[in-house]
């Protein structure tokens, strides 16, 4: 177990680490299918997606469409092949792709689906874990979510920060180094005194490359560490993390 003494600020990834992003998107996609089905005229259903019996497989297929678009576009931005676009823009594009794939035509349902990333549920230990940790350390959120999306997401999920940072401020997406440097600069202390917490190993690798301490938190979704990942800690939940830091 790594030594926790010397840590001054704790930085959390948000999407997937503190909120259930895939679960929230699945719920929003299912809602859009059902809402669109309700809005269809009975004489105009022949070519539409049959949402009367929405299966998990159908929803998962559409979730994959969403995720693939977001990952591709953020990668293109990171490679300089597309100018920076906020998550509000990319999510609206993803929602339209889902709609096209499913044959959805209800504008209201598509517009609501585009904001699904602002209504993601927290994991069961997220709110209490943040509250406990914030009594001992300055706590920052560091998210790829755009400023407006992050504001609304935090309010919906009940996440309480000392400060929430959007990568939109540096016009980049993690794991771009400037995003982690933004958090380090905001923390106002050397990177080795800043702990990055995430459920995604790719995120922690980016933080570690900037000199930050790292802690992996296991979630049902995410990117587990490999045997070669040299993170400072690996925890099964936020309770373990809070206990470890409290003992430092």
Name the descriptors.
single chain; 248 residues; alpha/beta; six-stranded parallel sheet; 46% helix; globular
Question: Quick summary of this structure?
Answer:
This protein has 248 residues and is an alpha/beta fold. It contains 9 helices and 6 strands.
Structure description:
By secondary structure, this protein is of the alpha/beta class. 46% of the residues lie in helices and 10% in strands. The protein contains nine helices and six strands; from the N terminus they run βαααααβαβαβαββα. It has a six-stranded parallel beta sheet, sandwiched between helices. Helix 2 runs antiparallel to helix 3. The N and C termini lie close together (11 Å). Residues 45-49 have low confidence and may be disordered.
CA-atom Rg in angstroms: 19 Å
Largest sheet: 6 strands, parallel
What fraction of the residues are assigned to beta strands by DSSP? 5-15%
* Category from helices, strands and their pairing: alpha/beta
Number of helices: 9
| Strand adjacency order, main sheet | 3-2-1-4-5-6
Strand/helix succession: EHHHHHEHEHEHEEH
Helix content: 40-55%
């Amino acid at each position: 177990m790594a030594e926790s003494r010397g840590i001054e600020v704790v930085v959390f990834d948000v999407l997937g680490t503190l909120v259930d992003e895939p679960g929230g998107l699945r719920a929003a996609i299912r809602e859009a299918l059902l809402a669109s089905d309700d809005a269809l005229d009975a004489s105009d259903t022949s070519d539409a997606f049959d949402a009367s019996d929405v299966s998990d497989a159908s929803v998962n297929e559409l979730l994959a469409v969403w995720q693939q678009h977001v990952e591709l576009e953020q990668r293109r931005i990171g490679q300089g092949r597309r100018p920076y676009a906020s998550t509000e823009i990319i999510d609206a594009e993803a929602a339209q792709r889902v709609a096209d794939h499913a044959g959805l035509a209800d504008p209201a349902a598509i517009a609501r689906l585009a904001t699904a990333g602002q209504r993601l549920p927290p994991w069961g230990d997220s709110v209490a874990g943040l509250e406990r940790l914030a009594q001992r350390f300055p706590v920052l959120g560091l998210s790829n979510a755009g400023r407006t999306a992050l504001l609304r997401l935090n309010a919906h999920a009940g996440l309480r920060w000392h400060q929430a940072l959007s990568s939109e401020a540096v016009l980049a997406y993690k794991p771009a180094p400037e995003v982690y440097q933004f958090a380090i600069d905001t923390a106002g202390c050397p990177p080795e005194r800043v702990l990055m917490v995430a459920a995604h190993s790719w995120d922690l690798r980016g933080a570690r490359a900037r000199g930050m301490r790292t802690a992996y938190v296991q979630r049902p979704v995410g990117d587990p560490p490999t045997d070669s990942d040299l993170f400072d800690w690996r925890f099964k939940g936020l309770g373990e993390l809070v206990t470890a830091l409290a003992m430092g």
